Every structure is written in structure tokens, then in C-alpha cells.
Amino acid sequence: MTFPTVKKMLVTVIAMFLVISFWQNPSASAGAFSDFVGDVGGFFSTIIDKTSEFVQALV
User: Fold this and answer.
1) Around Cβ 6, how many Cβ atoms within 10 Å?
2) Stretch 2-29: mean pLDDT, rounded?
3) Mean pLDDT throughout 14-36?
4) Structure confidence at residue 23 (pLDDT)
5) Of 48, 49, 47, 45, which Cα lies nearest the Cα of 37?
6) How far apart, in whole angstroms, are the C-alpha atoms of residue 30 and residue 26?
7) What ranges do the domains of the chain cover?
8) Three-state SS sequence of 1-59
9) Contact 4, 11 (CB under 8 A)
10) Average pLDDT over residues 19-32
11) How many other C-beta atoms can be found within 10 angstroms of the C-beta atom of residue 36?
12) Whole-angstrom Cα distance, residue 27 to residue 48?
């Protein structure tokens, strides 16, 4: 088996796992997804704040 074939199979297995987990418990999956999106948003918000503080300190 070549690496691209293994990679495609792994992506397919992960996608099917996500579909099945969403199907079995949609409310918990939605909660986990919203927590993840909130954490990513908080991370980028912190980066923007720190960058603006740094730029203001340069001026």
C-alpha cells in the first residue's frame, strides 16, 4: 500500500467515526463542537490582543 492510499483510508475512517458519533448523540456532539469553536475563537482573540499591545508599545 502506498502512503496516499493509507492517508485516504485514514481520512475516510475518521469521517465515518465523526458521522456515527454525531448520529448517536447529536446534543453532546454539538456541545463539543461549540466548545471547540469557542476555544479557537478565544485563542485568536488573545493573539489579536497581544499583537495590538505589542504594536502600541512600539509606537
Assistant:
1) 10
2) 90
3) 87
4) 87
5) 45
6) 6
7) 3-58
8) CCHHHHHHHHHHHHHHHHHHHHHHCHHHHHHHHHHHHHHHHHHHHHHHHHHHHHHHHHC
9) no
10) 85
11) 10
12) 31
* Residue bearing cell 475518521: 14
CA distance 49 to 44: 9
Side chain identity at residue 35, one-letter code: D
Judge whether 29 and 22 are in contact, CB under 8 Å: yes
The Cα 49–Cα 43 span in angstroms is 10
- Which residues, in sequence order, are CB contacts of 29 under 8 Å at separation 6+? 21, 22
Residue 30 has pLDDT above 90, yes or no: no
Higher pLDDT, 26 or 44: 44
Amino acid identity of residue 16, one-letter, is M
Residue 47 has pLDDT above 90, yes or no: yes
